[in-house]
Amino acid sequence: MQLDDELCLCFHVTKRKVMNYIRIERPRRAAQLSECFVAGTGCGCCRTYLARLFDEAVSGGTTEGDEPTSEDYARMRSRYVHQGGGRPPPGATPIDELPQVDPTKGENRGPLDGS
Ligand code: FES
What we know:
By secondary structure, the chain is an alpha+beta fold.
């Protein structure tokens, strides 16, 4: 995930906004990151990542290394929402459709695959 990638896809909050918020406002608890453009108050999928950024900022660490790509991050969010983890608000980045499984073939098919 790059600095200008959206960390909270529900409210279009970038990683850069959150990191600047942490640096300038110095929140005492991870939950206070919701004061940064209401990040984390939609489907809730990004709360784990917000908490991780907060913990790393407090400990002086970095998030480099095992960062998901923005595409992987969006897929994780779609899976989270499809599994009942939360509901994105109106105006949120849409979630991906899940691939459909053909039980007779046992294979995954995309939602637009008519075969
Ligand atoms: S992605 Fe942040 S609340 Fe949904």
